[in-house]
Amino acid sequence: MLAFVSVGLLALLSLSIPVGIVLFLLGFGIDQFFTPFPLMRGLGSMVWSTSENAALIAIPFFVLLGEVLVRTGIAARTYSALDRWVSWLPGGLVHANVATATMFSATSGSSVATAATVATVAMPQADRLGYDPKLFSGAIAAGGTLGIMIPPSINLIVYGFLTQTSIPQLFLAGLLPGILLALGFIVVTAFVCMVKPELGGARRTFPLIEMLKGLADLLPIILLFSAIIGSIYKGWATPTEAASVGVAGALAIALLFGGLNIRMIGAALIGTVKVTAMIMLVVIGASFLNFTLSAAGLSQELRGFLEGLGFNPLWTLLVIVLMYVVLGFFIETLSLMVITIPIVVPIVTALGYDPVWFGILMIVLIEMALITPPVGLNLFVVQGARRGGSIAEVMIGAVPYVLAMLAMVIALIALPDLALFLPKAMN
User: Which residues form the TRAP C4-dicarboxylate transport system permease DctM subunit domain (predicted)?
Assistant: First the structure.
């Protein structure tokens, strides 16, 4: 059955069938060939029970928040302000790519939205200033992955929903690793550009008065992040309610900067509907597939396989990590999460690992999948914003940042408190 699922998944995805439909088709196949129960009779009830969960309401709100920020010119102001503060480092403007992605990750909740936002603003600067396209675009693709680590994160909401883990605890756990990973990207960029200065472009400095003026353009994002996260941890709002607070704040910022109009609101709402529909189709399809897999006994089969290896908990965890690295080459990230979580997380918790900690470890592995070919989604998003060149350049430029992510995986396994320190402190 495991072979049927693996081969079927790859075969259907290779036909360019939408991921959500693929998950339903696999569920139908398992129902027909591997289970003696009439599972199809429960399809309607299962779909309804999955989609009515209140925690999922946060998804369209966070998507709308990102759409509003993208379409109001706030991204350009943020990028310009951070350029003044970080372009003195080896690598110059490349650091502004990472810094801007980090700032927008703290509000958008989506890696794709973050990468698209920064790429749209940054790529014209690369052409104008003569930067090497490989490292410049690779930094944007890698920086965009922070959107699913630094809270608020749509993927962490999905993880919390599927595993019944506290979403506020997951948000806290992702904050420190997300910031450390952003700093790791900056260190990697500086190191690469010290070894090969021609990759980074000219280092630039700005008068102190200009740098201080630029802080005013960072203030809206900082206040928005503080309102969202602060309302959650002060107990004033649930993650879902905080998402609506974020949307209200984004609209207020848009009004302040003169970007609020009917056309912008209409475009943001249409974009939100499209992205939310895609996410919900994947989540519901995965829930149905997991329902059929459980009925067919795949969870027990996989557990038996891992236990049959005779490994201790650490080596079993490393096998699971390797599995995610390999699957990340071929499967879209949200799909990879929702397919594997109901199977893998019970095994990991049975080994004695904390589900909050494993959620953050999984997110790092999912981030890696966003910038590894052939299905790395952020690679295609950044390439779409470029005016020329091949996607191979983006892939090559992302390689140093993949190594930084592998270092973070090792650090999380060796030092679990990187993820658990803030949740424990809040408790």
Answer: 7-417
Domain range for 88 is 54-426
- Domain membership of residue 298 (yes or no) is yes
Can you give 142-169 as a three-state secondary structure string? HHHHHHHCCCCCHHHHHHHHHHCCCHHH
* The model scores a pTM over 0.85: no
Cis peptide before 133 (omega within 30 of 0): no
Could you give phi then psi for residue 69, rounded to 5 degrees?
-65, -40
Q: Domain for residue 38, yes or no? A: no
The answer to whether residue 48 sits within a structural domain is no
Which stretch of 108-112, 182-186, 187-191, 213-217 has the lowest confidence by average pLDDT? 108-112
Q: How many domains does the chain have?
A: 1
Give kind and range of the element (H or E) at residue 249. helix 239-256
CA dihedral angle for residue 252, residue 256, residue 262, residue 263, rounded to 10 degrees: -110
Contacts of 299 (CB under 8 A, 6+ apart): 293, 342, 343, 346
